[in-house]
Amino acid sequence: MELYGKKVLVVGNARSGIGAAKLALNKGAKVCIYDGKPYEKWEAAMQESIDAMKSQGIEYALGDEPNVESYDLIILSPGVSPEIHLIQKARHFNISITGEFEFASWYCKAPIVAITGTNGKTTTTTLVGEMMRSFNPKTYVVGNIGNAFSEEVGHIPADGIVVAEVSSFQLETATTFHPKVSALLNITPDHLNRHGSMENYCACKYQIFANQTVEDYSILNIKDTYYEEAKEHTKANCIDFSTTTIPERGAYLKEGQLWENITGVNRLVCTVDQLFIKGTHNVENALAAIAIATAFGVPIEMIKRVLTTFKGVEHRTEYVTTKRGVDFFNDSKATNTDAAIAGLVGLSSLNKPIRLIAGGMDKKVSFNEWVKLFRGRVEKVYIIGETKEQIVNTCVAEGYHAYATYDTLDDAVLAAYEESKPEECILLSPACASWDMFESYEQRGRLFKELVNHLEG
């Protein structure tokens, strides 16, 4: 769409919205940012940002909905549901609607590697970003990790590479987005409070394949429940990864070693023992990264170098410190039960009792499979957030009674520490989103680390 002189409304005044607004302004549009939060309720630093944006020519509508019928295009931030009243009204007037990620992709000339899935996205994207950067220094990691795509796209040259972590929220509004290499790591129940059903959630994930052709590549997980269904949604060349079988073409685990046969020859990449990131879920992430990077053409030596030096991602079973013989781990990125299960099982390999801090925003999913793993692993669970009652009820139903509820993360951390003994672990792994109490899982994880580092103060 030619934007010069057009009126564009950006919905959401967070990082993605601000990036989209600046990009639209740069393309000659008349831009307004709408957010339901009134100006006076923003923190001082954000008010300064709003004032600075206004000085650049961007208008604001804060608190009250603007008249949408006067706009040519509406750009949604990923955190905004496309079912809000303003968007329903825009559809009534046949106004074009897109998402921030899709909008940025309109102006990207570089090839895109896109990674989605319920779990493992951040670790895999970070790994692939490092592999691509060793192959081509003009690599940009964007999307659900790092900077918003719209913030970076104006600086990305045609001979660069984009590595994008893409969420279901971003794919929900993607229509023309076309990655050269796509990866769907797995699908398990998540964000059902937004998408309404697994069918809708899967449909969003499959949108990553929508515009790929036979000249592109799709990376899929043989073990995943939705593997066969996902294959039916892509026209691209399928490359698989697996920890249990050897694919016809893909990356696989065999006797403690990571191999690939994508180029037609079985090649050893590295051993599991050479990985700093531990656990079966991280072996899957490493195999996915091997498949993605090899499909793109990255030499095997560069792939191995990254895999054998990579120390992990912040907020993903991240070791924080040891105090009084008690180890602390930050797994704030575990925003659903499957991610929390992976963190819990992975940490159990240390053979230390775990004091688990959990709970957060209700995403309308079951906690049963997660709670079933507590017995024999979790010494006690310290529960916070709006899911407190649901987690307690699940613990009772599963016959697990070592739990207590707390009003704040501070209270939970202090209680866990006071009750802990040497040779135990304290693990923040919420199994829930953060938005009931925090702005993001990053804020939650960093507060946890700050609290831990000041416990003895």
From TrEMBL:
Residues 315-432 form the Mur ligase C-terminal domain. Residues 115-293 form the Mur ligase central domain. Pathway: Cell wall biogenesis; peptidoglycan biosynthesis. GO terms for biological process: cell division; cell wall organization; peptidoglycan biosynthetic process; regulation of cell shape. It is found in: Cytoplasm. Its EC number is 6.3.2.9. GO terms for molecular function: ATP binding; UDP-N-acetylmuramoylalanine-D-glutamate ligase activity. Belongs to the MurCDEF family. Cell wall formation. Catalyzes the addition of glutamate to the nucleotide precursor UDP-N-acetylmuramoyl-L-alanine (UMA). This is UDP-N-acetylmuramoylalanine--D-glutamate ligase. It comes from Candidatus Cellulosilyticum pullistercoris. The gene is murD.
